[in-house]
Amino acid sequence: MYPQLEQEPQLEDGATKVRLLTSNNNPKAVSCDNKKLSQIKSKWKRALLRHVPVFQWLPAYNTEWGIDDFITGITLGLTIIPESIACALLAGLPARYGLCSAFIGPLIYLIFGSIDKVIIGPTSLVALVSVQFTVGRPIEFAFLLTFLSGIVQIIMGTLRMGFIFEFISMPVIKAFSSATAVLVIESQVKVLLGIKYLVPGLISSVRTLSSRISEANMGDLIMGTCAIIFLLLLELLERVARNEKHGKILRICCRYLSTSRNTLIVFIAAIVSYIWLGFREKLPYALSSNALSSLPNFTVPSLTIETPTHTYSFWEVLSELSVGIIVIPIVGILTNISIGKLTPKGLVDTNHELLTVGLCNMFGSCVQAMPSSGAFTRYAISTACGLKTPMANLYLGIIVLLALGYLSPYFNYIPEATLAAILICSIFTLLDFKLPLRLWRESKRDFGIWTLCFCVCVLFGVEVGLFVSIIVTALHLLFLWARPEILVKIQELDGMQYISVVPGNGIYFPAINHLRGLVLKACTQANFKIMVVIDGHKITGLDYTAAQGISKLSSDLCRNSDASSSTLLILYRFPGHLQHLIDVTDNLVFCENETKVKEFLTQESLRNGFINLKDHIRASIDLGYKIDIE
Fold first, then answer.
1. From the centroid of its chain, how far is CA 153?
2. What local confidence, expressed as pLDDT, does residue 226 receive?
3. Which of 175, 345, 516, 554 has its CA 20 to 30 Å from the CA of residue 196?
């Protein structure tokens, strides 16, 4: 041990303070610490802005945006109330449960939503799919379906599984939407006729309707027909609003009358019913019912369902809902993605949308809401009204809450035929038969996918059609992977022929046998006397199996056991990082430039007798080689 020098305590304390002071005043250390702290703050700020988009636009919010959003929010609030009631009836639920979905979703999307013009709420598309899994079951199944759908969407978003939706092509989405429109319209025909039944599937529904057509009620038919005519006439006012030849005040009035047409028809029909009941005890048409005046309680849904006759465990609930907990999340997010692609940005963070819509559904189930998502009708209204930010969701949610608290008893005066008319007119815009006609002219393959998806959705259900279409699309992508574009032709270089092979993309193991087959077919036609050059400048990827297949191709080009009589295989302009995967054989070489290819081509032509010695000497001199002739 080294001896320790004794120091005075005062000096030791002073030295310690000096060292600490010097360390803290080091400019480089302070600068480094500040830089690290700044990087951490910047990272957290970017993460906060990415996951909570409200902080992106809220600091820049101004009065002009506020006025536009307020008008849009009021308009959307008055529009979503009748739509929510109609969607609830379509899903086989009382009216108030549709309204519960119409306020909780917008309030959550206000904070976490990333697409400005998406307004979360009940949709006829999701309602139609939901009823396939909840029909004939206790009402609690609908709430638990909402909860489980939200959980699945959150899991998918957390695991960043949004790439799955890239496998759903535009023809599939359009066919899915058109088929859903057909199914919704068919499901509302019975309401227009005043016939009540609830069966899953188009075929079963048509069969039941045809057998009970004698029960049709003329009062419901007249009310529904008048409502449809009224809605169509007010929709025509949108054309007047777009015509700049008319005055500004007239155009504004026409625009808001057109966008508020659903609210107006509900208001008028309810007044007619109220006045009628003042003179008569019974109406000639059916009214909606079960609308209670109260705000929903916030309760976490139970994973078990108890009924007077049976208690369903969680696993029994999962068995009853089956693939519904997968289909509903997919169907719900598809609309949001489609709307996002229509916005000026055109880009959608699918994983973030999965998380946001999942939160809307998860918290929505706590207030007895049905599954929700964005809707094209609300997107059209928000665009027409000049929506600037998601702040309109706040005003919309407040209006729906007020309606739930004070106006619910008056919803009992709304005729069911009027709600059916609203659904039919709203969903009719999703019918798109111009696309298949264009696909028939320009892309038969996409036309086949559209036809398959549409027919399967209509005949066997939207969930079956969606999965079948995804499978068919995935199979087509696998086919393109296994059969990539490969150009094989005979070319000449300085009068010498060779077989040129140009793969158009990455070569992976499903495609290697296809490549070998094309090359061998060309070599057979040339009697194995022409050199093969595979130009790899377009190859972006190569796996081990494909690399070994290329090595085996060189063996395939050997006509005899003697390698000297085999056809030479040149790999031209192959990326350097891919060359090490390929085993070099006696008749396989790599070339990086055309001069080297010309050298091998000259040697092969001489060996096969295609050129004489003079030509060989002249070619060698041109290439810069010294020729010794004895």
1. 12
2. 93
3. 175
Give the residue among 32, 99, 53, 2 at the shortest CA–CA distance from 367.
99
Lookup: tokens for 366:
């706590």
505-520: b (≥16 Cβ within 10 Å) or e: ebbbbbbbeebbebbe
SS (H, E, C) 61-124: CCHHHHHHHHHHHHHHHHHHHHHHHHHHHHCCCCHHHHHHHHHHHHHHHHHHCCCCCCCCECCH
Residue 34's pLDDT band (cuts 50, 70, 90): low
- Angle between helices 218-242 and 416-427 in degrees, nearest 10: 40
- Beta strand pairing status for 496-503 and 532-535? parallel
DSSP 8-class letter at 529: -
Q: How far apart are CA 435 and CA 147, in angstroms?
A: 36
Q: What is the pLDDT of residues 418-466, one digit of tens each?
A: 988 888 888 887 788 888 999 999 888 889 889 998 999 888 887 788 7
Residue type, 155: I
Contacts for 487-496: CB closer than 8 Å, 24+ residues apart:
488/518, 488/519, 488/522, 490/522, 490/526, 490/530, 493/594, 493/597, 493/598, 493/601, 494/598, 494/601, 494/619, 496/601, 496/602, 496/605, 496/610, 496/611
Question: Do 508 and 546 meet the contact criterion of CB atoms below 8 Å apart?
Answer: yes
At position 118, the amino acid (one-letter code) is V
Q: Which amino acid is at 479?
A: F
Least trusted range by pLDDT, from 26-35, 47-56, 191-200, 278-287: 26-35
What is d(CA 433, CA 500) in angstroms, rounded to the nearest whole number?
44
Q: What are phi and psi of 112, to 5 degrees?
A: -105, -10
Map 158-221 to HEC letters.
Answer: HCCCHHHHHHCCHHHHHHHHHHHHHHHHHHHHHHHCCCCCCCCCHHHHHHHHHHCHHHCCHHHH
Q: Which of 147, 70, 619, 125 is nearest to 386 (CA)?
A: 70
- Angle between helix 170-192 and helix 416-427 axes, rounded to 10 deg: 160
Instruction: Determine the longest span between alpha carbons in the chain, in angstroms.
Output: 126
CA dihedral of 179, 184, 186, 190, whole degrees rounded to 10: 170
Q: What backbone phi and psi angles, to 5 degrees, belong to 373? A: -165, -175
Q: Which residues contact 52 (CB under 8 A, 6 or more apart)?
A: 111, 112
| Cβ within 8 Å of residue 344, ≥6 positions away | none
Task: Give CA–CA dist 111/253, Å, rounded.
Answer: 32
Whether 72 contacts 319, CB under 8 Å: no
pLDDT of residue 223: 92
In this predicted structure, what is the pLDDT of residue 255? 81
Helix (H) or strand (E) holding 501: strand 496-503
On the CB side of 147, CA atoms within 13 Å amount to 18
Residue pair 358/350 in contact (Cβ under 8 Å)? The answer is no
Distance set, CA 607 to CA 342, 524, 581, 616 (Å): 63, 19, 30, 10
Which amino acid is present at 390?
A: P
DSSP string, 41-53: HHHHHHHHHHH-T
d(CA 492, CA 605): 12
CB 83 within 8 A of CB 119: no
Q: How far apart are CA 394 and CA 76, in angstroms?
A: 11
Across 368-392, average pLDDT: 84
Structure tokens at 32: 């480094």
